[in-house]
Amino acid sequence: MQNTIKDIKTMSWRCMLNAIKTPDSLIMSLVVPVILLLVFVNVFGGSMDIGGYNFVNFIIPGIMVNCLIQSSSSTGIGVNKDMTTGIVTRFRSMDISNVAFLAGHVLVAFIKGMATVAILIGVSFLVGFRPLADLPQWLFIIGLIMLFVMANTWLAVMLGVMMKSAESVGGFIAFYAVLVFLSPGMAPTENMPRALQIFAENQPMAPFITSIRSLVNGHAPQGDQVLATLLWWGGILILTFIATVYAYKKKLTV
Amino acid sequence: MSTIISVSNLKKSYKDNEVLKGISFDVKQGGIFALLGSNGAGKTTTINILATLQKADGGEASICGYDCFSQQRDVKKSISLTGQYATVDGSLTGRENLKLIGRLKHIKNPQEKARELLEKFNLTDAADKPASTYSGGMRRRLDIAMSLIGDPKIIFLDEPTTGLDPQSRIAMWELVKEMSSQGITIFLTTQYLEEVEHLADDIAILHEGKIVAHGTSDELKEMLPQGMLKITFPCLDSFLKAKSQLDRYSIANEDEKEYSISILTSGKVDEITNILLGFKSNNIELKNFEQLKPTLEDVFLTIIGYEKDGGK
Ligand SMILES: Nc1ncnc2c1ncn2[C@@H]1O[C@H](COP(=O)(O)OP(=O)(O)OP(=O)(O)O)[C@@H](O)[C@H]1O
Ligand SMILES: [Mg+2]
Hints:
The complex is a heterodimer of chains A (about 250) and B (about 300).
Chain A: H1 2-21, H2 23-44, H3 55-84, H4 87-92, H5 98-126, H6 135-162, H7 166-178, H8 194-202, H9 205-216, H10 223-252
Chain B: E1 3-14, E2 17-28, E3 32-36, H1 43-50, E4 58-63, E5 66-67, H2 72-78, E6 79-82, H3 94-104, H4 110-120, H5 136-148, E7 154-158, H6 166-181, E8 185-190, H7 193-199, E9 202-207, E10 210-215, H8 217-221, E11 227-232, H9 236-245, E12 251-255, E13 260-265, H10 269-281, E14 288-292, H11 296-308
Parallel strand pairs in B: 3-8, 3-9, 6-7, 7-8
Antiparallel strand pairs in B: 1-2, 1-4, 4-5, 9-10, 11-13, 11-14, 12-13
Helix pairs in contact in B: 3-4, 3-5
The structure holds adenosine-5'-triphosphate and magnesium ion.
Adenosine-5'-triphosphate binds near residues 14, 17, 43, 45 and 84 of chain B.
């Protein structure tokens, strides 16, 4: 047990070194969302009818979702590269618990995700973000973001373990990040065609975005939206966790 | 010397592909053991099974008295594996790679150990550069340095010299010999006959899923052809005549367009003279002949021929 904790520390140290050495992945996961933010604020900011919100307050949850998914991409690719090349062969020949390798990746990805959100929120203040949440509402916001980051981290790790190549992991996550445009995140759903509207309002990103948006603007979130967020993302977290551990064990015993 | 690795009737298939058809061999403690085989012979598969990375379909294997299937943790503590494809983390520096393994092996002072190994393996100058920028030879050295951490009893080296230039290859041989002189048992795989001759105390040849020969270098040499003769003829007629005259030799290669034929010989002058005189007395014209070094393929050929003849 003591050794397992030591090994998790060591593996996290390794993933952290990798993350610091390749800051481009952190930067890239911020560049696209920040550009989106600027474009939306400057191009659509005045013209879109968003029901009386401050525009940045309206758009920030959607941008955040896009940003977090982009940032999980480097995690998925990193895990996949580890699985398919080099060093894991050595790890497997050593007396290290299987958990340590996955735990190292997950811990660092989680920290990276939270740091990315913090930077994004910092930037958004510069373009007019004026949150109206009080302290309990902020804690609530942080809790929901932590759940969302954790679920997406395991999703990325799962793809990294299961998929054949780093390219397919990257491709899949890029596609998944685009789904935020088919959600209430970037524009009000009322103007969408009927079929799209149904999808947009019921996909898992929707209740998360709606809940964060209410909290950021100082409203109490609707109970059903919060419940849907917890069920969707808690469910995704549990399922991807189980699937990852299962697929990882299976990959290791050829 | 006592036995440190013992393998008996080991079997492994991938779907319909029977890679190991029941191989058995023992490795003695302290020496250099080489598993020789061509591409796809099953060398990596064998190493992976012994290093507990893969499961076998049948048979038994033990290392230091521990069973490779049921006592995996004890086996892992006794060995180090340097895989065929660099088992280093390319984005970390050489020093960080060594520290990583030191920490995972729970040794007392990973930092100090890393410094010591960098020096010993002549990597101090590149210590703080990412391993992905290393040359093939440097990466191999780092890889082996990582394997030395934690005082393993056995080190597995999967094709340690494949892809190295001749100079790095000779340096690698020296390194392997030095590790062996410190009492570590070395288990290496290779495709090069020359390498086992220089390096190994004990050699097993893996071919088509079986160990076709096992012994010391001297013991094997007695079975191997010492030379190969490539003879080229001016026309098809002499080529065919010569071929029937050479039917008691193993033919390693023949080319009907070039009218050339390569046979395995003992390499002795007498034998070659006899062959040439034979052509002369039958009025077979020659265009050219040259003495070649036998390749691994030629060795297989003789050994397989040897098996078929029931050991002539
Ligand atoms: N995971 C796998 N799934 C299916 N077939 C495999 C797998 N690994 C190896 N093989 C097959 O098993 C055979 C032996 O492979 P192995 O890698 O052990 O050979 P090798 O002697 O190490 O060859 P090389 O010199 O090319 O490294 C090959 O035919 C290979 O295609
Ligand atoms: Mg191999």
